[in-house]
Amino acid sequence: MSTDERDRISAFALRVWGYKQGEMVSLMLHLGDRLGLYQAMAGQAPMTAAELAAATGLHERWLLEWLRGQAAARLIDTEDGESFQLSPEGAAVLADSQDLSFAAGAFAGGAAPPDVVDRLADAFRSGLGLTFDERGPAAAAAIERMTEPWTRLALVPLILPALDGVVGRLQAGARVADVGCGSGVAVCAMAAAFPASRFDGLDPSQHAIGRARAKAAGFGLENTDFRLAKAEDLPGDHRYDLVLTLDCIHDMPRPAQAMAAIRQAIRPDGTWLIKDIRSSPSWTANLRNPMLAMMYGLSVTGCMSSGLSEPGGAGLGTLGFHPELAERMCREAGFSRFAQRDFDDPVNLYYEVRP
């Protein structure tokens, strides 16, 4: 074997092991978030493992190993491997769930449990993916943790006011459907902000609906109703002033039927807010996304799998519902007005759609 060939193999192997490293760093990120380590370090002077142990009540030796790993990943700063500091930007992204840049909640401890990995491997053979609930109850909790900060911080104060006439209707008393509501974060945020309106949350996941009902009860919200249902189960009587589909059209096995059902459920002067992944139909354009490999991994483990969980499912995948397709499908479903909105969300685009 020539030196050039050996160098190419070594470079390729390094790239592959880089992804294994990412898997391990992901788990450490989850533990840092779960154990409150980033929060304990935020805004503090450099800390030793002993000082972090005193602040958290955790074991020093375990913390030292975690701190050194985080420093090796360049997520925490150190000069000597003994004293460590979380930078202000690190605190914003890893510790502060009130910051729109917060990302630590996206790390749930692993790509998938072993039994789910086995079923995903089988899906490569059968072509039939897993439903959301077949990924287990932890999936609902992980999605909630990942999406909750942006939804809570941006939906009511930023996004809804940008939609023509929507806030006025909500203040006066409107009927709203959140289709694919997940654990009810958006519904609860809106219901608390607009007590005169009524909010229906629909989702095919019993795990998510259970969490949503518990969340609404915990907040004492009486203007919400959550039910186990798909978009196709919406009533066709044009009752809704506002319909939302937040990061879920690309997950649906039958998005065209879902969109047609939404058209029949919405009032002639109503508004449909779509939030979906920022993507392009062009591979070259998508390569500009520095997290592209992660997005495709999420698609295989979740989005595309869900979209192929029924025979004949569309299987759009995480990146499949790009703006061109979104507008075409909306018009095919009977909507006449389609406007793209950009709220500086690094992951998602928003569409304001009307009959």
What does this structure look like?
By secondary structure, this protein is of the alpha/beta class. The chain has two domains: 3-97, Arc Repressor Mutant, subunit A, CATH 1.10.10.10; 114-354, Rossmann fold. The chain contains 14 helices and ten strands. Strands 6-5-4-7-8-10-9 form a seven-stranded mixed β-sheet, with helices on both faces. Helix 3 (49-56) packs across helix 4 and helix 7 runs parallel beside helix 9 (185-193).
Task: Name a few traits of the molecule.
Rossmann fold; 3-stranded antiparallel beta sheet; 14 helices; 48% helix; 7-stranded mixed beta sheet; globular; Arc Repressor Mutant, subunit A; alpha/beta
CATH architecture designation of the largest domain: 3-Layer(aba) Sandwich
Q: Low-confidence parts, pLDDT < 50 over ≥5 residues? A: none
The level-1 CATH class of the largest domain: Alpha Beta
Number of domains: 2
Helix content: 40-55%
Mean pLDDT: 94
Per CATH, the superfamily of the largest domain is Vaccinia Virus protein VP39
The CATH topology of the largest domain turns out to be: Rossmann fold
Largest sheet: 7 strands, mixed
Q: What is the rounded Rg?
A: 22 Å
> Which outline best applies?
globular
Span between termini: 65 Å
Strand order of the largest sheet: 6-5-4-7-8-10-9
Strand % is 15-25%
